Amino acid sequence: MWRYWAIGAAVLAAVAGGAMLFGGSGRPTLLPAQPAAQAAAAPATGAAAADPVPEASEATREQKRFARYDRDQDGKVTRDEYLANRRKGFAKLDVNGDGRLDFDEWAAKATAKFVAADHDKSGAMDAAEFATTAVKRKPSSRPKCPPTAAAPAEES
């Protein structure tokens, strides 16, 4: 007889536990790791507000950009400091070193890409050759969703 009482008590405890977990009483429940002060500060809507993810402010990004240009760290970006990165790029393009860029120097990378893609050396690219000039994209940093399980084929 005591077994029936024990089974009945276990069933009642399971029902009471399920009611507490899934009851939805409309007020936030305290989790063991959640301090009582934080629960008291929860909004009255019933859902505990998630801590916002800290983001870099625009001022911080701008300060970092400014620091990259301000080479001597005097708090001012001079014309020479501002143009330093552009001079390096210009020097790479100015192949003959005359201080001037003609169109061929400026378009050297594009010209080399065209010559490499024109496999039959006809001076024109067909669709297959043109497809090789497409920009190679970096893979997305977002996680990919797992493939969905294919539904089993119905047999007739």
Characterize this entry briefly.
The chain has 156 residues and is mainly alpha-helical. It contains seven helices and no strands.
Explain the overall architecture.
It is a single chain. The longest helix is centred in the N-terminal third of the chain and has 21 residues. The radius of gyration is 34 Å and the shape is elongated. The protein is mainly α and 156 residues long. The protein has a domain of 65 residues.
Give the SSE map.
Blueprint: H1 2-22, H2 36-40, H3 58-69, H4 79-93, H5 103-106, H6 108-117, H7 127-131
The count of helical stretches stands at: 7
Which residue ranges are poorly predicted, with pLDDT under 50 across at least 5 consecutive positions?
Answer: none
Q: Hey, roughly how much beta strand do the residues contain?
A: under 5%
Largest sheet report: none
N-end to C-end Cα span: 56 Å
Q: Determine Rg (CA atoms, Å).
A: 34 Å
> How many beta-strand runs?
0
Structural key phrases:
156 residues, mainly alpha, 7 helices, 46% helix, calcium ion binding
